Amino acid sequence: MLELPRALPRELYNSACIEDAVIQAAMQPWAAMECIQLGSGRQLVQMETLNLGKLQVVRETQLASVQKVGFTPQGFCTLSYCTPAPSFRFSELGAESSSIFFMPECAEYDIYVPEGIQTSYIGFHIDEFLQGARALDPVQWERGFTSLQSIHNGQQPALRSAITEWLQSTQMFTAATPAQSEQFKRQLLQQVVHIATAKSVDPADLSLAERIQAFHTCRKARNYIEECFGLDIIPSISDICTVVGVSERSLQYAFRLYVNMSPLAYLRSCRLSRVRSALRASDASSTTVTAVAMHFGFLHLGRFARDYKQVFGELPSLTLESEF
Q1: DSSP letters of 277-307?
Q2: Residue ranges of the alpha helices (H) in 176-288?
Q3: What pTM was computed for the model?
């Protein structure tokens, strides 16, 4: 594996325009990689990296075509996407508008990225990912994979949004306590698991008995969520599935009937409601919106403020300043 040159920064977040293929590879020291510049141009790639230890977030905008050859180390895997391009090649697979690529540990790859294409991925520990994925969809993920997989579940926009959100949230990590930082990492992994295992849901297929079961499943899930909040814990969807004893598909069906939204959206709504209650009960002279939002696991304050206003019709700062 290439050693990261001493001249390159090792900060939490880095954004740089790279002129050398060796440097492009070295900016990703967690993966054994050789980059070969194939196109012409002094500037090779605009690159952003977020280094969270076991979690890595990377976005590359290729300014000259390049080939990447290597393998994923043991224990490391990625979930990625790229802007659609007929000539793009991820090993033997092409890139369609809906493609998400899952690359497991110890997998060889040979990637051709043409000029002008943006590729992005989240890298994470395979065991932690599979634990969550198997809780959500044991049939699909129990056996795992040994080679590159193309996933078509309509979740590429969600992955793209997640990567953008996390790359824009580095200041929050800088300000976070160690406990908050671990919570944010857990939240990111939860998003990754949810995106990789998501499936379409049609509640009309459920029988009356299944509808009754769905109601009791969601009540049990809600009770668990409330218990976690009482302990200052933000539960993941995989946590909920494990405690309730259902797969993500069953939980999806159940919540569509229960509140007409996904479990992840419902959990976010519950967190927003808790933030609102906390803000209404707090003194603006001794509490900040940022502190309350981070306490309930909201990392990206811009998105949080938009979601809060969309739901409650006002900015969180106004809630904090109001007297009730």
Answers
A1: HHHHTS-TTT--HHHHHHHTT---HHHHHHH
A2: 178-197, 208-230, 237-244, 248-259, 263-280
A3: 0.69
CATH number for the domain harbouring residue 267: 1.10.10.60
Task: Decide if 180 is inside a domain.
Answer: no
Domain of 46, in residue numbers: 13-167
pLDDT at residue number 257: 78
Tokens 């051709």 belong to residue: 112
pLDDT band at 177 (very low <50, low <70, confident <90, very high): confident
Give the dihedral of Cα atoms 127, 130, 171, 275; nearest 10 deg: -130
Q: Is residue 53 in some structural domain?
A: yes
Query: What pLDDT does 5 receive?
Result: 37
162 and 236 together in one domain: no
Element (DSSP H or E) covering residue 130:
helix 126-136
What pLDDT score was predicted for residue 185? 87
* DSSP three-state, residue 16: strand
